Structure formats: C-alpha cells, structure tokens
Amino acid sequence: MAVGNYSVVNPHVDQPLPDSHSVSVRVGSLRGNNNIYHQSEYVHSGQFAFVARENGDHMACFRIGHHKPQITLTIDLDWRTGVAAKDWSNVAKKSNIDGMVRQLQILQEVVSSIHEEIIDLRKQEEEMELHNWETNTSMLWLCFLSLFVCMSVAGLQLRHLKTFFEKKKIL
Q: Which family does it belong to (predicted)?
C-alpha cells in the first residue's frame, strides 16, 4: 500500500499561489505495464493512495507547462508505503483505544510485513539451493566423464607404446 500527498510550495507566503504554479501529476509503475494509479492535470496540490498490483519500484512524475520566462517550482511530496502508509491516528480515534493497544497494532503490522518478507526470502533460498544442487550434480557427472576420458586416453597410449616397443624389439 502507498499513500502520498503533494503540493506546490508557495514562494510568496503572503500572496495566493499564482495559476502558473500548477503541475500535472502521474503516479505509476516503472514496468512497461502502463499501470497508472493516479493522474491529475494542472493542480496545486493533491493526494493519492493505491495498493500496488506488482512488486518493485513505482514513480511519481511532475510536469509543468512551458513558461516564458522559465520558472522554478518546489514541490512538497510525502510518500509513505507499507506500515507507514496506515493512518494510525484515525485507527485510535475510531475505536477509542489507548496508546498501548495502538502501539501493539503498529508492531503487529510490522511483524506481519517482516514475516511476509521472511517467507519470500525462504522461497528464494529454496530456489537457490535447488539450483546449486543441480549445478553440483552436473559438475560431478562432468568430472566422472573427464576422468573416464583421461583414463581411456592413458590406456590407449600405454597399449600404443607397448605395441611400438614390441615392434622395435625393445620389450
């Protein structure tokens, strides 16, 4: 899960934000699947929230139109993912629970996300062990084949030398 807030920072605090200080925003996946989770045109601020359909990195792209003279904008972006994306203050308000229970819920979320990561790492470890075992087995067969070829060549050389020496009447 990912949650984000963005806003264009007003360079003149005492004055309203000019219309030229608007941005177009697109939030999506870096992969080529065209997964766009949020899109806004010509806004001063906004929010987005999504549950990613795929693992990996995601991006937020901010664009401004062509201005003459050129302007520089500062954008305040607060992007939270995973456990940090949950609004724990609302959870505490809704159920009227004390701070200790709220902290336990946060810890439970952290533990469950760590547990999921451990399960994924174990799956990757099993795949690597299987791959290593297959590689070791292939190398063992290759060693035996190499040893057989070397012994065969040595035997052929001995037989050839024996017949050669017998023809020359050395043996």
A: Belongs to the EMP24/GP25L family.
